[in-house]
Amino acid sequence: MITLYWLYALAGITFTLFALFSAFDRTNGKRFGNAAFWGLLAVSFFFGDMLGDLGNGILVLLLVGLAGFGLLGRGEPPTTSLETRFNLSAELGNRLFLPALIIPVTAFAGTILYNYTPFGNSGLFEERWVTLILLGTGVLIALCVCMAWLKPPLVAPVNEGRRLMDSIGWASVLPQMLAALGAVFAMAGVGDVIGDIARGILPEGNIFLAVLIYALGMALFTMVMGNAFAAFPVMAAAIGIPFLVEDFGGNAPVIGAIGMLAGFCGTLMTPMAANFNVVPAALLEMKSQYGVIRMQIGTAIPLLACNILLIYFLAF
Amino acid sequence: MSDYLVLTGILVVVVGFALRMNPLLVVTASAITTGVLGGLDFVEVISAFGRAFNENRYISVVWIVLPVIGLLERYGLQQRARLVIEDLKGATMGKLLLLYLIFRQVTAALGLTSVAGPAQTVRPLVAPMAEAAAEKTHGELSEDERERVLGMSAATDNVGLFFGEDIFVAIASILLIQGIFATYGYELTPLQLSVWAIPTAICAFFIHGSRLLLFDRSLRKTPAPKAEGEQ
């Protein structure tokens, strides 16, 4: 069976190559910092399960040290000039899109085939990770197609990948770090304390105000944690279930489903949701790391208001 | 009162982000503060942090797409995306992003959340196409306007994903809601929950969709004349 670990091995190989090529890249004054950072990620992908909890913790501290003290630079691997790109794009035409589309199409068609045809009974893929594994498969197919068709130098995929990777830099592991922070918050009981506070300001007997505090609490706590999944158990246990469902007799599925979506409005407005808000800004090489959030607030706030009204009118 | 001490970690995050310190340092400082004030010793906190980091590796696995995207960029993918838009009649940035919003919401509602994303689709295709479409109707973009177009491209990807995915029954957030309610004795089915994601999905489509079309108009208001002789 192809499991998530195969994908981790693929990521391990990718980061190993990024690290090796970074180490020899004299265009980057901080090349050893980059080599160490990508190298540590390679170690994490290959051997994370063997390092033990403390070992992984130390690995994280090393990553943070490298990034936090400015030891990461940006390599400038050899690539084509803007002018060459214009000429090549005219010459190659719309066929250039095909390899880029192979990745999503493999993931899309593959998942559908796997879920709705007997192919799924083969047990070829680890159930929980089918789409992600197929995404990895798509990457390999697309890579082979590009190499066969465009015949770039053999090292080009590594160098071009590294060019993009360096432009993202430390932000590439921020989402994973925030997920880890969420786990520490849960262990320390941060959620219980927030729940107590939310209950403390809840006025008695007013359904609308209770809905308001539930939905705003979801959005605000999601903004703090960067993840609605961390906020939901807290707000559901503090207000959603005891007050909205039990005391006021609201419809449980509405309160659950739309409560979560109120949290998603918070996700649109916080740098803590780094993979959605900060990483894309880095990936698009925007000037401000808050440039994506700035464009999302105008959707998030009216949508949060809609969610509050939807809960109030649909659940009661 | 001592319970409130664990909230210090949140304060660390807020202050750290506000002071624009390196987010990785801020997050680590917050984890250590929270853990230690929550009664764990230093080694326990580092171990818990390391374990959770390791369990969440799947989040960072998407970077394996970068060599392919980078390779295609080397051969002019972004330039090609722009050319296609320049050739299309009537393709404005707003309409283009509106189409992408529909695509993202529908595929996410079918459970296909990782077929698109910032690395898979926004950087190589959506952002350059949006930029080209904006330049077509508006002329040269100022740096600030370009920043807003790029931001809106990534924002549209997020809105489509967030307010599409919960319509799919087997998505993590739906399973989480089901699990939480089950612990309190409410047996809900995923389908019961996912249908209630539809009203919000519709609201999200109308709110974000109209913002996209308005964005077109706000750009058009200040047309910069094209320089003589420019292609």
From TrEMBL, chain A:
UniProt superkingdom: Bacteria
Keyword Transcription regulation included in the entry's annotation: no
Transmembrane parts of this sequence: 6-24, 31-48, 54-75, 96-117, 129-150, 170-189, 201-221, 257-284, 296-315
Name of the protein in question: DUF979 domain-containing protein
Record key words, sorted: Membrane, Transmembrane, Transmembrane helix
Cited Pfam families: DUF979
Organism listed in the record: Parasphingopyxis marina
TrEMBL record, chain B:
Record bears the keyword Transmembrane helix: yes
InterPro entries in the cross-refs: DUF969
Segments crossing the lipid bilayer: 58-77, 97-119, 167-186, 193-214
Keyword Nucleus belongs to the record: no
Family annotation (Pfam families): DUF969
Keyword annotations: Membrane, Transmembrane, Transmembrane helix
Protein name: DUF969 domain-containing protein
